[in-house]
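Q: My labmate handed me this sequence with no annotations at all. I'd like to see what the chain might look like in three dimensions before we decide whether it's worth expressing. Could you predict it?
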Amino acid sequence: MRDAFAGAPRDWTQGPIAPSLLLLALPMVVEMSMESLFALVDIFWISRLAPAVAEPAVAVVGTTESLLSILYALAMGIGGATAAIVARRVGEKRREKAAEAAVQEIAVALAIALLLGVAGGLGSRWLLAQMGMPQATIDAAGGYATVMFGGNATVVLLFVMNAIFRGAGDAAIAMRVLLLANSINLVLDPCLLFGWGPFPEMGVAGAAVATNIGRGVGVLYQLSQLVRHGARCEVFRRHLRLVPDVLRTLARLAGTGTLQSLIQTTSWVGLLKVLNQFGDAAVAGYTFGIRVVIFGLLPSWGLASAAATMVGQSLGAKDPARAAKSVWLAGSWNLAVLSVVGAFFALATPWIVGFFTDEPDVAAHAIAALRTISYGFPFFAFGMVFAQAFNGAGDPWTPTWINFGAFWCFELPLATLLANQAGLGPSGVFWAIGAAFSLFTVVAALLFRRGKWQAKVV
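A: Here is what I predict for the chain of 458 residues:
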């Protein structure tokens, strides 16, 4: 535990697999839990507003998060490519090339984030309207979306630079970044929302300002760690230049990785559009439920990310057998963890939802979402690990095609069919989510066993 959270130096390509995987996974689990905490904190404090304000505000937060998931897809695409390249170079013992790649990835991420920040900040209210939100709801809480879209550079850089640390096998730094950012957000959120102490009362927009300040400080800390003497991926002044060959490799991997994430995240936007026809209560309930689901799932992404690092570095060290064993072990651990989490969510749903809202209509939808989706947690366990393993091996196309089939060709039509034609309403959407993830896992397992990912060149 001490070595894991302190980031003790270790060669991840040597020695027993289980201790290495555990040492990588523990700080990654904490990191992913901290990432999901941003949205939970926002939802918690916003739900403490007057009911007439809270319900439309929560609906706007949920819709904004769904739209931002497209941005997250871009960040995860670049981050996945970053982790794969850095891990492969570190496994090859070419740390100069790892640092060189890190600089290219930060430059690309910053350029894209600034461009999208201007466009998203100016067009935030139009985007909410396109999602079917009533004008009164947009007028009441649209400032949250404007701040979140405009400040998107903080989350993009946070994703990408943490991917550098994870790829280099220094997950403890990525964990500390999120701990710092969340600590600031926890303090500032209610202060800016309600105007506590010397802070101005900014309402719903204050939650977004607090989130961006916290993430921004986290980004500054990341930069300080990249230039720190002795860092596993230490960046020097000589690395501050564009390298066309590295940019082409990044574009190839990140483009496919972004498409992969976009397919999945735009399916969430499509699901929200189906839910919007059932009113603000259904959207708010779904928002509460899905935030808790993500909080339960993201720690397991820590195990999946640890497996991806092990895969990338093991392939760089020409040891594909070690890579495969790491994936199956991580999947087994994930299955055990998520089975327990899923059972807890299914049994304790009313208590969990009651922590966020006491509005009967909203709570009913939140309970249905959380309980229904939690039934699929055992399937999610291996599916996440397989997807990250493909990405860590530099094979983002395989999970991209699986995402396309499971989420666009299966989940969206099924959600529409169950919600409307079958008369299940919002519950039909929740059942479709679990069914799609289960299909994804089965297909991913079959393709992973074929082993073609072991021959990918990065």
